[in-house]
């Protein structure tokens, strides 16, 4: 692969990390993205690109021509009020004769609560949160597109994402972290760089209508990860609170589900070895290079 014409619906940390990986492999990138803000030309990693305004209320119709020419499409926009705005507004312009690779980024919230047990891609999906319900509906809509229009679509279910800039270490340094006391609460994580590497490997190893979990090898409780961060930084242990004391609805939802996400399918399919097999390697690297 020497050149890629890619359209990214949403240009957050995952999409940016993915594009950075492509560029680092000396592949020429023709890049178009969407943003909630007004359309404008921008630059990323010394690459010029066009950002088109695209939200639930308005989208720049000029993006349609770029979308039609794109051979790779990444969708990282979450549903808005239960609606996948990409499918609603522009799916009719995505054609099978142009598209080689379409990836929808979903979330492991679609599994719901499995009482701390392991889940894989064949496990029952029983989301307990609105986010999980909406993500599962979006997955079904994209798979229906793959079926009816013979589009090359794959789905990646992402675990909790952390990065070199957004992680428990920086939160601990801010002094705003509290340890939530809940037994048997397991949660899987993934470093954004591993996501980018997996997306890149899938460019040349693609099977349509497949669903893959992306998570690291070691599910853990929030408490376990926080205490490792405390040890790395040598800071005071945060206060412990009960689940019932949480005020944030988003954080309460996080503690509704307990599961360990199995990553064997993606590792086997792509023959991928995690750069950060667990939060330990990930946080140790961040402490050594960014703190």
Give the structure's gist in a few sentences.
With 291 residues, this protein is an alpha/beta fold.
Element layout with pairings:
Blueprint: E1 3-9, H1 13-24, E2 28-35, E3 40-44, E4 47-53, H2 63-69, E5 72-75, H3 85-90, E6 101-107, E7 118-119, H4 130-149, E8 153-158, E9 160-162, H5 168-174, E10 179-181, E11 189-191, H6 192-202, E12 211-214, H7 222-233, E13 240-242, H8 249-254, E14 260-261, H9 264-270, H10 279-290
Helix pairs in contact: 1-6, 5-7, 7-10
Description:
- By secondary structure, the chain is of the alpha/beta class.
- The chain has a domain at 3-164 and 190-216: Rossmann fold (3-Layer(aba) Sandwich).
- Helices cover 34% and strands 22% of the residues.
- The strands form four sheets. It has an eight-stranded mixed β-sheet. A two-stranded parallel sheet has the order 7-14.
- α7 runs parallel beside α10 (279-290).
- The longest helix is centred in the middle third of the chain and has 20 residues, at 130-149.
- It starts with a strand and ends with a helix.
- The mean pLDDT is 96.
The overall pLDDT average reads 96
The share of residues in helices is: 25-40%
Q: Remind me, CATH topology of the domain at 3-164 and 190-216?
A: Rossmann fold
CATH level-four homologous superfamily name of the domain at 3-164 and 190-216: NAD(P)-binding Rossmann-like Domain
Low-pLDDT stretches: none
End-to-end Cα distance, whole Å, is: 37 Å
> How many distinct helices?
10
Largest sheet: 8 strands, mixed
Q: Rg, please?
A: 19 Å
Number of strands: 14
The topology string of helices and strands comes to EHEEEHEHEEHEEHEEHEHEHEHH
What is the spatial order of strands in the main beta sheet? 3-4-2-1-5-6-8-12
Q: Write down the overall geometry.
A: globular
User: What class would the helix/strand composition place it in?
Assistant: alpha/beta
Strand content: 15-25%
The first-level CATH class name of the domain at 3-164 and 190-216: Alpha Beta
Shape-level CATH architecture of the domain at 3-164 and 190-216: 3-Layer(aba) Sandwich
